[in-house]
Amino acid sequence: MTQFQDPRAFRDRTVVVTGSASGIGAVAVERFRAGGAKVIGVDRVPTTAADLHLVGDLSTRAGVEDIVNYIAPAMSAGAANAGAA
Description:
Blueprint: E1 14-18, H1 23-34, E2 38-43, E3 52-55, H2 61-71, E4 77-79
Parallel strand pairs: 1-2, 1-4, 2-3
């Protein structure tokens, strides 16, 4: 069994998931929360699936810097799923 399949694998961890409002990002939020993680979701579209959701545009350097400066101290892991269309 891999750590990600273990439901306790992310207990007491904070995970940041970009693109958290839909698709792979939304599924990642569910999986990390099921593993015990506190999840910070980042997306241009608001969602309530994560423990904390930040609305941000990661397609610009300034947008990335704003989000990273805010969340970096609390972050244990990240899942980058956002893509520009």
